[in-house]
Amino acid sequence: MSGYASNIVTGLLLFPLIAAVITLPYMVYQYRKVGSIPWLRTLIVYSFVFYMLVAYFMVILPLPEDRTAVVPYAAHPQLVPFNFVKLFLDNTTASLGNPSTWPGLVRDPNVYEALFNVLLLVPLGMYLRYYFRRTWWQTLIIGFCVTLFYETSQLTGLWGVYEHPYRLFDVDDLMLNTLGAMVGFWMMGPALRVLPDMRLVNEEAREDGVRASATRRGLSFFIDLAAAQIAAGVVVDVAEALGAQAAVESAGAGWGLAVQAVEFAALAVFFAVIPALSHGRTLGQRLLKLRIVRPDASPARWYQIAARYGLLFLLAWAPFALLLGVVDLDPSQAGETNALAAIAAQHQAGIIWAWLAFMATWAVTLVVRGVRSAVKKKPFVMLNGLMSNTRVMTEAGARLVRERRAVLDVAEVAALERRIAEDGTPLAELMERAGGAVADEVRAWVPDPAPVVVLAGSGNNGGDGWVVARKLAEAGYPVTLVAPDLAERLHAEPARSTAMEAFSDASVRNLPLSVLIAPDADVLADAVDKAEAVVDALLGTGFSGDEVREPYASWIRAANRRRFEGARGKGRGRHRKRTHERGEHERGRRALPPKVKSAPFAVSVDVPSGLAAQDGVAARPTFAADMTVTMLAFKPGLTVPAAARWTGAVKLAKLGVDVPALRGELHEGEAS
Known about the structure:
The chain is of the alpha/beta class. It has 28 helices and 9 strands. The protein has a 7-stranded parallel beta sheet with strand order 5-4-3-6-7-8-9, sandwiched between helices. Strands 1-2 form a two-stranded antiparallel sheet. The N and C termini lie far apart (88 Å). The model is unreliable at 571-582 (pLDDT under 50). Belongs to the NnrE/AIBP family. GO terms for molecular function: metal ion binding; NAD(P)HX epimerase activity; nucleotide binding.
């Protein structure tokens, strides 16, 4: 038992070094893949590394005293399956009929070694199922390969490091370790119901990764700074090897000054020349998918980039240069220079304390701004960025800012759709693509098939909803589509033909798609209570007004109540009832109430129903979405700050259309 404990201690001592080595590559990988570093994923990754380290130490330690050591019992592999059972039966004094002998079982080496062999890979099976999302047969194969690697390490004397095997290759260990991996896999099954889904953790990280966090920007800066210092060091070493130091000193110049000039030149190359030549990206920013742009996300000019980093280094260097200048002042000589130097020399201690107070205040404000940026999801802007009129954005964030600026009025969107149809892409095809884009978002946020409710209106926005319902049903999601009338009674085209085709297709293929036509309140509430996602495809860009008509108003209220107050079976009572009746989430307020833990993922098609796409004015009621997937281009109402509480995150689905080119053609046609 002490041997197992010593192996764990060895892992604890070595793990900080391993963690330090993998941290930078891990951060770069995470920022490139998902855009941010979720704490839960990081905790699991580092715990997995620690577990694998300790597990391997359990297998290979203790090591022999020298390379030529011969361990007799390990010389010949044990290839007889279940040999440990035979050894146990031959040597045990325990009897199943005598309970007093049972405690001795756990002290039998054949028993506790077998148990430890099973336990060794139990965590591996849990990690494989939860974090890596492996199936049972993949876990079986991976568990077997891992234990085979362990046993082969022992058989080969740690892959040739030692001349002879020093631990026994045992086929029983192969079986028991593999069984342990499967036990871990099965144990994780019930836990999956309560643990956060790692796929959702990754999706949330991607949403957060649109913003250039202070940590991400700081990491890119230090990567560039380290690269510049390494490059300068290489140049200086090569110059010294070629005799440059002697030549500089013989010319009467100082070698130290020359080294500083090389370091300055390296900084200029990495922070000014390279980003100017690579469209606003330093090497570190390219690695982490960042970009230097103007506040409106348009490309920054070379002189703005140079000013940004020139000011940064100036502002970083000047306080320390000032401090060193004050410290180096000689009170006896300062008066001969000027009165200001004399005053500074006489009050050195006070100036140094004032400098420390200033730097501490600056550091605190920096931390506060960084925390505020992280909490409020706002950009972290530094003084040099303000002075140079530049910002550091993620590539995705800069693209989103440009898309939000390129808004199209509702009338322009209609004209654009007509032009697309004239160019050979029918509106039915656009509807198919739009529904597919929304269905993809639902699958991303509800990764495993679960009940979904689609609220479909009678217009073309409702046609998008029918496509969403069909595509989710094809993926195995049980879908309930709520519509005001039968598909054949819809009047808008191509919504009518699309709805009829989707309904017919679902019937022929026996897809899990059911349709509720104008259901009563209880039936609708039951469907929404069970849903893991609610899709709002009721009212499109053509809506405006102060009130939503029935039955859409009741449907929106049912979805919002589920979002803010939970399922009807939870928290019933007078207070709950009054809250329902008041419709408190409809009150005009700067922020909506927090949604309940069990709230389904809510997504709106093109624009939340009840929100005017043209001016962002919210009617009573308005659908509260976690995400809005808008088609072709942003509409003006989606960019209004007050609309954010209803829209959630806004995603643009371009539907395979070159909108800027077509928009330019439309404007040219209007001008002519």
